[in-house]
Design a protein that fits this description.
single chain, 118 residues, mainly alpha, 4 helices
Length: 118
């Protein structure tokens, strides 16, 4: 087992991660019961999405959170620095998550603007 997460830096984020997951679960249960979106549920969904991306971005950008040096020391014979590739892939993952959430938020905002213009 090769540890790549700094658990001391991860522990403070657990409460916020749990908050985002539980909030999303409660919202989805409410939507299952009501069987339709409302303006307030769309606003709550947007807020949960923004909080989730904020938590994810903060985790990705926290210095010392990811420790890939142990992987490099195990794979000394590899020609590329695996830590550099993993760091780049995390940045690409963050960009993809931001784009996907932005499309979701845009969809909610578009529906909200249509309902307000009526």
């Amino acid at each position: 087992m090769i540890p790549v997460l700094n658990m001391e830096l991860f522990k403070p984020f657990l409460i916020w991660i749990n908050f985002a997951i539980i909030s999303n679960l409660i919202l989805n249960l409410y939507l299952l019961i009501k069987k339709q979106w409302q303006s307030i549920t769309r606003i709550i969904a947007i807020a949960i999405d923004i909080i989730g991306v904020g938590i994810f971005a903060k985790l990705m950008m926290t210095p010392g959170f990811w420790n890939f040096s142990a992987i490099d020391s195990v794979l000394k014979d590899e020609s590329i620095a695996l830590s550099t590739v993993l760091d780049l892939s995390l940045n690409i993952t963050l960009a993809v998550v931001v784009i996907i959430v932005a499309f979701d938020i845009f969809g909610h905002l578009r529906v909200l603007m249509k309902t307000r213009s009526r």
